[in-house]
Amino acid sequence: MGAVQLESVAAQHAHAKLNVDSLPQGPSLFDGNDTARIDGSKSDEYERFEKGLMQYGCAHYRRRCRIRAPCCNEIFDCRHCHNESKNSIKIDTARRHELPRHELQQVICSLCGTEQEVRQTCISCGVCMGKYFCEVCKLFDDDVSKEQYHCHVCGICRIGGRENFFHCSKCGCCYSKVLKNSHACVEGAMHHDCPICFEYLFESRNDVSVLPCGHTIHEKCLKEMKEHCQFACPLCSKSVCDMSKAWERLDAELATLSNSFDDKMVRILCNDCGAVSEVQFHLIAHKCHNCKSYNTRQI
Q1: Where is the RING-type domain (predicted)?
Q2: Is 60 in a helix, a strand, or coil?
Q3: What contacts 24+ positions apart, CB below 8 Å, involve 218-227?
């Protein structure tokens, strides 16, 4: 079948963007923990607390502290920086490792350099090392515009605002509320690798799309599939969006072609609805009698 132009997958189905901060956590925002104890009337104390806001950090987080990795005793800006350095393909296989995030015990203030146990406020200079702070996950982040929140069921911190997500116990993940009554549940849908790039989706920091079949995939990988005219789920082969317009165009195209196998019948299985049909053999495509889809295979 030739290339078929489709509308945006996002326009056809409300894919959930599941932004993950990759760290389990019990959160504290600007109005919690140490921050709540800062009296706004004490300007000097407040200025110390806010000093350096959004001026420190790395490509992953804006924060005013660094971490000492408990696994190799080296200092990094964050656990992602550690993993990119220590789990790279450039590193000898025997030496590769990831930071055990729950075992993190020491942080270093970026302003005064004081090393201390994990906490939100520096014991030496009094600066807030992260406006968003999770004591469980040891997560610090000054950029609270992400609307971070901790899902105790997922066991990790996510972004996007708690009010915008719900946790699906069967799929095992937080999904956008637009999918609450419409998504197809798949057991542990988020607890596997992306079928295209093989990154573990549950802790991925990249946007994830939930397909109509319930399977999950990176949004950027889904876009690349479309660019290569691949419109079927890599896991179950169901269409990733509404293909009805494409099937209508294929109907018109096939109507102009002669078929020299009018007497030959074949059995087909529809990947979209699961129906089995007996149809006339055609060199180009076979149409499901039940749902009119051409996403079929001969059996």
Answers
A1: 194-237
A2: coil
A3: 218/194, 219/15, 219/17, 221/194, 221/195, 221/196, 221/197, 222/9, 222/15, 222/196, 224/196, 225/196, 226/6, 226/9
Between 3.40.50.2300, 2.20.28.10, 1.10.357.10, 3.40.50.300, what CATH number should domain 244-298 receive? 2.20.28.10
With 0-12 / 13-18 / 19 or more C-beta atoms within 10 angstroms meaning exposed / middle / buried, residue 253 is: middle
- What residue segments make up the domains of the chain, in order of their start? 9-19+165-227, 22-150, 244-298
Residues of the chain with pLDDT under 50: 1-17, 19-20, 22-26, 30-40
* Secondary structure class of 106 (helix, strand, coil): strand
pLDDT at 103: 92
Residue 168 backbone phi and psi in degrees, to 5: -95, 115
For residue 47, what pLDDT is reported? 85
pLDDT of 257 reads 84
Residue 108 per-residue DSSP state? E
Helix, strand, coil proportions of the chain in percent (round to 5)? 20, 20, 55
pLDDT in tens, 265-291: 999 999 999 999 999 898 899 999 999
* Cβ–Cβ under 8 Å, residues 206 and 212: no
Q: Are the CB atoms for 284 and 254 separated by under 8 Å?
A: yes
Q: How far apart are CA 285 and CA 291, in angstroms?
A: 15
